[in-house]
Design goal:
Pfam families: MFS_2. The chain is mainly alpha-helical. Helix content is 84%, strand content 0%.
């Protein structure tokens, strides 16, 4: 069954809301790690990538 444009926008709007929250949290974490904790921006970038890689490996095992 093919989705209409309105249905596609509806599904996308729900996903957009959670992505706004996730991006806001990542921005605050990046600020904390660089300006307060003192890590370099490159270290923070590597940290975020490593965490995403671990998440990609573990999520299928958890069933998400």
């Amino acid at each position: 069954m093919k989705l209409s444009i309105v249905e596609k926008i509806g599904f996308g709007a729900g996903d957009m809301a959670i992505n706004v929250v996730i991006i806001a949290m990542q921005l605050l974490l990046a600020y904390f790690y660089t300006d307060i904790y003192g890590l370099s921006a490159a270290d923070v970038g590597v940290l975020f990538v490593v965490v995403r890689m671990i998440d990609a490996i573990i999520d299928p095992a958890m069933g998400f």
